[in-house]
Amino acid sequence: MCKHILNVQASIRAPCCKLWFDCAECHGEVSDHPLRKASEMVFGCKKCKKVFRKDMDQFEEEDEYCPHCDNKFIVDAKTPQMAISVEGHDARMGERFEKDMRLKEDNLKTVFDMNADVSHRMG
After folding, report:
1. Are 65 and 89 in contact (CB under 8 A)?
2. pLDDT tens sequence across 71-90
3. Where is the signal peptide (predicted)?
4. 15, 56, 98, 116: least CB-packed within 10 angstroms?
């Protein structure tokens, strides 16, 4: 799992050390050498778990998809962003979950209300 790019769709096999990484930054963190550039790259699709090769010298728009499952693995990277929020307010809670205290609740008579006259309902 890559901590640099949140929406990784394919892993790359580094041509220099033959190890699998989700991004070039992950390779740089664990390796003592730079990522070697190659004309042919080996990818592993994260959706169908199959491996495929792509020629990077002749890379075209249709090469952005996995040849096995048509998953688009060349997408704009989503990186983790720092966020500041107001403490105490949960942003996940929508308007429909919050109770409006201005509305008066109707006092309906039920069978379980001991003070209500429900003799006409009891047979």
Report:
1. no
2. 888 877 777 777 666 666 55
3. none
4. 98
